[in-house]
Amino acid sequence: xxxxxxxxxxxxxxxxxxxxxxxxxxxxxxxxxxxxxxxxxxxxxxxxxxxxxxxxxxxxxxxxxxxxxxxxxxxxxxxxxxxxxxxxxxxxxxxxxxxxxxxxxxxxxxxxxxxxxxxxxxxxxxxxxxxxxxxxxxxxxxxxxxxxxxx
Length: 151
Fold this sequence. Notes:
alpha+beta; 33% strand
């Protein structure tokens, strides 16, 4: 087992954007909109957590290279009345891409939202029948001079 050897590859600009959604009860989304979540603002926390996670990717995923990120940004938006969408864009000038950093940032942002609102999502038995994290994927990848690959 070994990491991929990127020694001979040149450092070039790279960017990746990943997205995912968390389905929530409409009542929970209303609490978020009204800033009434007991733990604080889940959207703000998700943005912070996602940025922090992007910087820790190589410690979480064993074969990922440690990268010096030049930018990480997280956007959270409401999708109708049933979900929040987290989108992360990560940039670097490196020898390998930042798709995993974007995916980790998105996933941790979604998990942070779940953690902050879980008390409102539980049913009478303490289960989460409506809550789900779904559709996490890379929506865009940029390498070097703006060449784009779409999923």
